[in-house]
Amino acid sequence: MSSKFDVRGIVKDHVAATLQTNEGKTSIGNAACLYGIPLLSAVASGIWLTSVPGELLTVISILAGLSFALAVFVFELRITAEQKFKRESYVLTLIDRLYKNVLYSVLIGILSVVLGVLVPGSSGTVMSRLFVGLCVGVSCHYVLVLVVVLRTLQAAYREMAIG
Length: 163
Fold this sequence. Notes:
Strand content: under 5%
Number of domains: 1
Radius of gyration: 18 Å
Helix content: over 70%
Distance between the termini: 44 Å
Oligomer: single chain
Shape: elongated
Order of helices and strands: HHHHH
Structural class: mainly alpha
């Protein structure tokens, strides 16, 4: 894979920013929420749904575009915040964490849309249900990642208001 298309760094940064506590340990609760709930929704939708609702793809597509715009704004915020806060400031740490999660959300949003587009082209009920489950599961994961982004944004705002 060409290094221009290698997204492993984005995934690694997200995992480090989201699943690891300040002590360097993995948060089992965060992992269960971010991956367990989407896994359950993927299995359930793969069993009971035969297609992905078109509205889901529309919403995810719009949110992915907005996530990309947010990534640009957070990048700009980081540049300006660096001039106001000390290098070891917790605000900068939160902004970095926010940026990593926003980039990951863009990646997951794109993956959700691609999977949703592949569903109608899959032949056979087993393959179709597999793609439906994957699409719904990844979309659920995407929404949960957006919740993480909101919480990180709230924490950064709170720290900036205090300091």
